[in-house]
């Protein structure tokens, strides 16, 4: 496949000392290898897409995003974002932001690149900043599928997204490499880890993420949500509390769906009240892991 586009010539190689200074320098990549080179010239040429992927190396992000930046003319704007916003560790303001989070989205992929995204939730501070290069979050008792942990076992790369929907209307991306650590082992290394006495909200293991990138998610498309008080059944196995067969997946097999109010025969248990069909009640337990 051939594409016609405007390509910025690859910047000259930067010395190892400069590269090392970037890695050991201030929080954000304000002195990146491509920023120290003179402004590159522009010329129009036709080339193979594979050659395009090799253009402008050593920038944050993927080869694919770099190629599309060149093709769609957004490379200069992207470079400003990389230089201004992409950090290789957590800033103090990011640490404060994480400390106030009660939910987080986790993206993982297996060794073949098959992706999964999941929700994690807990009280404020359930995501713990160990230092400016490491964050940890607990894995509570869930549905037993282990989708996220299974992916991490094959492929340690993870993407975390935390969003403040109610006040700042801003988000924080944290990308890095993850490892799974037993609760007892991590507490030996970090005795100050929070301890939660709520049943179903006790960490079985922790996921420790070594930060490779941390950067803002802009607010322009983030809706404002108003928090509402609700009683969550952390770690429960009650079908109704977990949402039952909300989407009718089990009903496809023409099998009766147990609601959690039946007796051993499958009939509604005498004297046992039906759980009200309240959408909020049906979402109870949304913080369960998967």
- How do the SSEs run, as a string of H and E? EHEHHHHEEEEHEEHEH
How many individual helices? 8
CATH class assignment of the largest domain: Mainly Beta
Strand percentage? 15-25%
Count of folded domains: 3
CATH superfamily of the largest domain: Electron Transport, Fmn-binding Protein, Chain A
Low-confidence stretches: 1-27, 29-57, 272-290
Question: How many β-strand runs?
Answer: 9
Which overall shape is indicated by the principal axes computed on the Cα atoms? globular
CA radius of gyration is 24 Å
- Main beta sheet: strand number and arrangement? 7 strands, antiparallel
Average residue pLDDT: 77
Give helix % range. Answer: 10-25%
The name of the CATH topology of the largest domain is Pnp Oxidase, Chain A
What is the rounded distance between the termini?
A: 41 Å
Q: What structural category characterises the helix and strand content? A: alpha+beta
So what's the oligomer here? single chain
Strand order in the largest sheet = 4-3-7-8-9-6-5
CATH architectural name of the largest domain: Roll
């Amino acid at each position: 496949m051939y594409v016609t586009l405007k390509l910025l010539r690859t910047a000259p190689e930067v010395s190892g000392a400069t590269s090392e200074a970037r890695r050991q320098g201030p929080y954000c990549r304000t002195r990146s290898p491509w920023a120290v080179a003179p402004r590159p010239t522009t010329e129009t040429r036709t080339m193979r897409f594979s050659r395009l992927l090799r253009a402008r190396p050593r920038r944050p992000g993927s080869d694919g995003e770099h190629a599309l930046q060149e093709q769609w003319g957004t490379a200069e704007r992207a470079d400003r974002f990389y230089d201004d916003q992409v950090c290789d560790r957590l800033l103090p303001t990011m640490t404060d932001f994480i400390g106030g989070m009660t939910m987080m989205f986790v993206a993982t992929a297996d060794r073949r690149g098959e992706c999964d995204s999941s929700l994690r939730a807990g009280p404020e501070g359930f995501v713990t900043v160990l230092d400016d290069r490491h964050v940890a979050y607990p894995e509570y008792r869930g549905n037993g599928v282990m989708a996220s942990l299974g992916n991490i076992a094959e492929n340690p790369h993870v993407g975390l997204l935390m969003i403040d929907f109610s006040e700042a209307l801003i988000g924080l991306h944290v990308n890095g490499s993850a490892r799974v650590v037993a609760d007892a082992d991590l507490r030996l290394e970090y005795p100050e880890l929070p301890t939660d006495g709520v049943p179903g909200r006790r960490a079985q293991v922790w996921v420790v993420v070594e930060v490779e990138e941390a950067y803002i998610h802009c607010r322009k498309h983030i809706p404002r949500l108003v928090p509402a008080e609700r009683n969550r059944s952390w770690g429960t196995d009650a079908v109704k509390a977990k949402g039952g067969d909300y989407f009718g997946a089990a009903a496809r097999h023409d099998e009766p769906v147990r609601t959690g109010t039946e007796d051993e025969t499958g009939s509604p248990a005498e004297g046992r009240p039906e759980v009200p069909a309240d959408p909020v009640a049906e979402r109870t337990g949304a913080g369960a892991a998967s």
